[in-house]
Design brief:
There is one protein chain. This protein is mainly beta and about 200 residues long. The protein folds into two domains: about 90 residues, Sandwich (Jelly Rolls); about 80 residues, TusA-like domain (Translation Initiation Factor IF3, 2-Layer Sandwich). About 15% of the residues lie in helices and about 40% in strands. It has three helices and 13 strands. A five-stranded antiparallel beta sheet has the order 1-2-9-4-7, with no helix packed on it. A four-stranded antiparallel beta sheet has the order 3-8-5-6, with no helix packed on it. The longest helix is centred in the middle third of the chain and has 13 residues. It is elongated, with a radius of gyration of 18 Å. The C terminus is likely disordered.
Length: about 200
C-alpha cells in the first residue's frame, strides 16, 4: 500500500483555533497536519509514541520540557516518547507531525457501557477521553451502536479522535476510541441531565 498527499492542498486555517487534520491513522503510525494562525498555540501535552515534527511553513517556537526551540520552514525536530511539549505560532504556520510506535491492545482500558447507568455514560466517556494522552485509546463495549455518543464526541472534540469498530453487532459492539490530537484548551464537557439537545445517552 502507498500513500500520497499534496500538503499544500491540505493546508487550511481556522481563525479561532489551531486545526489538526489526520492524514494517516494506523495503530503504530499516525501522520497529522497541524495548522496555526499567527498567535495561536497548542497546549502542553505528551504522546506515548516517538514524535517527529517537520515545519512545512511559517515560524513557531516548539517547547520540550520547557526548553524553547525556534523553528522555521524546512526544519525538523524529533522528541522521545512521553516528553511534554507545546507549540506557539509566530506567523501562519503548518506542521507535519509523525507519531511512530504503538501501544499493545492489552494496555487499552475497556469500558463496558452496559454496566453504567444511561445518564452517566456520556460524561464518563468524556472524562476518560479528556484524560487520554495523544496516541492512547480505550475500548467501548455496548449492546447497541452508540451513534449519538460518537456524534457528540466528534462535535465537541473535532479532529481529536478516531472511532474504530472492532466488533459491530448485532448483539455486542466493541469500539476503539483513540486520541489523535490534544485538547485545544477551550473544551466543555457534558454533565448528567445536560446532554446535547435532542440526543439521549447511548
Amino acid at each position: 500500500m502507498m500513500f500520497k498527499q499534496n500538503l499544500k492542498d491540505a493546508i487550511e486555517f481556522d481563525e479561532k483555533k489551531f486545526l489538526a487534520k489526520v492524514l494517516v491513522n494506523q495503530p503504530a503510525y499516525r501522520m497529522i497536519l497541524l495548522t496555526f494562525r499567527s498567535g495561536q498555540s497548542m497546549p502542553e501535552h505528551s504522546a506515548r509514541e516517538m514524535v517527529t515534527v517537520y515545519v512545512v511553513s511559517g515560524h513557531i517556537t516548539f517547547h520540550v520540557d520547557d526548553a524553547p526551540t525556534e523553528m522555521r520552514a524546512g526544519e525538523v525536530i524529533w522528541i522521545h516518547a512521553g516528553a511534554p511539549h507545546r507549540v506557539d505560532a509566530h506567523e501562519d504556520s503548518s506542521l507535519l507531525v509523525i507519531r511512530a510506535g504503538g501501544v499493545s491492545a492489552s494496555a487499552e482500558e475497556e469500558i463496558d457501557l452496559r454496566q453504567v447507568p444511561r445518564s452517566e455514560r456520556h460524561p464518563l466517556i468524556f472524562r476518560r477521553f479528556d484524560g487520554l494522552p495523544v496516541g492512547d485509546a480505550f475500548v467501548l463495549i455496548n449492546d447497541h451502536d452508540p451513534v449519538p455518543l460518537n456524534g457528540q464526541l466528534e462535535g465537541a472534540r473535532p479532529g481529536q479522535l478516531s472511532w474504530e469498530y472492532i466488533v459491530r453487532g448485532p448483539d455486542v459492539f466493541r469500539i476503539r476510541v483513540r486520541r489523535i490530537a490534544p485538547l485545544s484548551g477551550a473544551e466543555t464537557s457534558p454533565l448528567p441531565g445536560n446532554m446535547v439537545q435532542g440526543i439521549s445517552p447511548s
